[in-house]
Specification:
Blueprint (H helix, E strand, L loop, with lengths): L1 H32 L1 H28 L2 H17 L1
């Protein structure tokens, strides 16, 4: 009875271990196959980030600081009085 339980435990743990090894190998293979696609996607995201930062910088530089200060002050005044 105890021998059967120990044998079942060993078989079950072995199956789980083999499954995890196969899963790890499959994930490594997928990462290897997709590495070029990942590099291209990261480059595209970096270019978008640079373009977004340039656009944001232009928008901040183009605005009048006095006008921005007045708008912010008006917003704070309206919030406090609401």
């Amino acid at each position: 009875m105890v021998d059967d339980a120990v044998m079942l435990m060993i078989v079950g743990m072995s199956v789980v271990y083999v499954f995890l090894v196969i899963l790890n190998l499959a994930m490594s293979l997928l990462a290897y196959c997709m590495r070029e696609h990942t590099r291209m996607e990261e480059a595209a995201l970096a270019e978008e980030e640079i373009a977004r930062r340039k656009k944001k910088k232009k928008r901040i530089d183009a605005g009048d600081i006095g006008t921005q200060t007045a708008v912010i002050s008006a917003a704070i005044y309206a919030f406090r009085n609401a």
